[in-house]
Known about the structure:
By secondary structure, this protein is α+β, with helices and mostly antiparallel strands.
Amino acid sequence: MGLRDELLKAIWHAFTALDVDKSGKVSKSQLKVLSHNLCTVMKIPHDPAALEEHFRDDDEGPVSNQGYMPYLNRFILDKVQDNFDRIDFNRMCWTLCARKNLNRNHLLISDDDAFKIWCIFNFLSEDRYPLVMVSEEIEYFLRKLTEAMGGSWIEEKFEEYKLQLSSKQQCLNVWELIELVGMGHFSKGMDRQTLSMGINEVFQELILDVLKQGYMMKKGHKRKNWTERWFLLNLVFTVTLMCHIYGDFILMDTFPFPLIVMTSRIPVQSLPDKEGKKCLFYVKCSDKSFEVSASDKKKKQEWIQGIQTCITLLKVGRPAPHHEARQKRRELRQKQQAEQEELELRMRELQTANENKQRELEAMRKKLEEAAANAAEEERRRLQTQSELQDLYRVEMEKEKMVRQQMEEQVAQKSSELEQYLQRVRELENMYHRLEEALEEERQARQDEETVRKLQARLLEEEVSKRAELEQIHLYQQQTISQTQAEKQELERERLAKESALQSAMQQLQQLEADRWGALEQYEEVMKKLADAANNTKSWKDKVAHHEGLIRLIQPGPKYPQKITNWGPAAFTETELSLREKDWQEKKNRPPTPQ
């Protein structure tokens, strides 16, 4: 906060105090007195005719705050320099506004403490008018005051108080803040002196920029005795003075007279205990030095750290830490307020979009209702048309029913004729199936005949092979008799074995002969079945030929006389018999194989 903003806040309190009827305007005579007092306190040359010259074109009525501001900026604030006592300036403005607004009844604080709270309010209030202090700054001030009084901060108590401020937009004006502190709402259990000391300590820190204060022992320069003094460490010099001296300096006030202490390259350093004094440190200046004894090591370290911090701030030209902390809090609130405004803007946009959507839905609902009414009318027309069509269809159905009955009668007549035709077809199919069964039986009989014939041929071949084998055995026996007497016994044994084999072969031959006769009997049975099948076929052929005259059966039969062998009649063809005869002659003429 700059000097102009700080002065405007105090002047605003004075201007509003002069506005008796709360119309926002003050008479010119009162503004003349206020302007004269401001120029006197801030050491500015006063021109009494400047006010009349400035408002020459206006009427004779009172002047508003907006009308007074151009004059204030041009003739007073633009000329002000930081060479006046700000406490006197604030006290002059306080005197004007406290007389009208301060209610001293039931207050536990003095007018001087109320003035200090008023100054603290101007420092912590927002840069907008009317001036108010937000809840974050109220909490900061009350927390500082509680710590200065040596009490403990109760968060729950302040949260309850914040709930009461919700109806007032979480802020207080200066007179409500003075009443809050003066009534002792957050200082219960503390006496008036403690409360006054706490207010004074917060005032010195926030308004007078006191970084550190307290009692310490100081060694004299001449008598070298140790005396208790009250020390204050603050930042009060301008840049011009800082450059004129060295560029490194601090201010230490010792009661009852102030001393300017200028630092060297090593302005403060710790000293060992001596002369019965402990916690010593040394402050070196350009013309003199100080030896100071703190009450304990913690206080000693705090003072050394405070002096070094003060020097660092003066070197870089930065204000006291609480100024930066206040600015950071304001920037954070502005950021939060901007985010809140952005959120509110988005909420309004969403609400507008929602309202538009609601209007669209309402219009859509009306369209749906109109569409439903149209649909109901259309449905009524459709039902009427459907009823007319049903009556028309009923008449058509009656006509169609009569036509269908006539067609059913014709279909029944055609169905009886078709049934007779189908019955005839089924009879022909049955006759055809029985004819196929007779042909199948004849074909099966011929297959059985062929099988028996092949069996007889196979038995004949086996008989021929056995006879050839017997002839070979007989020839072999004749040869073995003509051999030497020495081999007679061996040959006799072999002969007996051969005779046994011959007997076995004869038995097999007899068995084959029996099988041949059995096959011949089977062949006769098959021939009998074939003759029966042929008779059946002939009879069915006659029936079919008699019934339709369309089917003629072809009966197989030989075209030449059949030959009869021991296998039966027609067992072999002429070619097969010639091949068998030739094969038998070759085997008969072949010489026997020696064993």
